[in-house]
Design brief:
The chain has five helices and eleven strands. The chain is an alpha+beta fold and 203 residues long. It folds into two domains: 118 residues, Homing Intron 3 (I-Ppo) Encoded Endonuclease, Chain A (Alpha-Beta Complex), CATH 3.90.75.20; 55 residues, 2-Layer Sandwich (GCC-box Binding Domain). Strands 1, 4, 5 and 6 form a four-stranded mixed sheet that branches. It has a three-stranded antiparallel sheet with strand order 9-10-11, covered by helices on one side. A two-stranded antiparallel sheet has the order 2-3. Strand 5 and strand 6 form a beta hairpin. GO terms for molecular function: DNA binding. This is HNH nuclease domain-containing protein.
Length: 203
């Protein structure tokens, strides 16, 4: 039977050193609500612990509680689980538990909210596609991604970065006109329609 070291925090999944987490294990220890994206710890079996005290203690503290801890990475916040010191992102675990296999590519949060792990908000994409669906940075001063103030010309500058190349889209008196030009260029380049939007609650 599997044995474990005592859990260090309620966010860690106990497993033996030789154990490699697979879909059946996550289903055994976690409930995943596909509609809300929330993970909840299930009550664990006795054979996951070294002794009865650890077993009873963990279940009394954690069973039925919301699972995961937050990790801030650059300008985003992700939900994570730790398995024997190895970090697993909740959005990738959600994909595994839904589709029965780990995603081969990156997982994009469609609405830009990296804490929303509902399955309808997740899609498997390559790196370039993921970069074409990013929220508006908080440091943006124009209110529109790709639009910035050009001091020397006293106009709004419109530009799009794509595959390491800058596409200059012109200078404009009206910030909204500059934003429309940028959006049109992004459509031509295959950006997601949500790219550059402000997250709900951040406006």
């Amino acid at each position: 039977m599997m044995t474990t070291n005592q859990d260090k925090t309620i966010y860690e999944i106990g497993c033996s050193q030789e154990f490699v987490p697979v879909v059946s294990f996550f289903h055994e220890v976690l409930d995943y609500n596909k509609d809300t994206g929330v993970f909840t710890w299930k009550e664990r079996h006795r054979d996951l612990f070294e002794n009865k005290h650890q077993w009873c203690s963990w279940n009394s503290r954690c069973a039925g509680k919301v699972a995961g801890s937050q990790l801030k990475k650059k300008n985003k916040t992700y939900l994570i689980f730790s398995v024997k010191g190895k970090r697993f992102y909740a959005h990738r675990v959600a994909w595994l538990m839904t589709h029965g296999k780990w995603p081969e590519l990156e997982i994009d949060h469609i609405n830009g909210d990296s804490t929303d792990n509902s399955i309808s908000n997740l899609r498997e994409v390559n790196r370039k596609q993921n970069c074409r669906n990013m929220k508006l940075y908080k440091t943006n001063k124009s209110g529109y991604a790709g639009v910035s103030w050009h001091e020397r010309e006293n106009k709004w500058r419109a530009r799009v970065m794509f595959n390491g190349k800058e596409f200059f889209c012109g200078l404009y008196d009206d910030v909204k006109e500059a934003a429309l030009v940028v959006n049109q260029k992004r459509k031509e380049l295959g950006f997601h329609e949500n790219h550059g939007l402000t997250l709900k609650g951040e406006a």
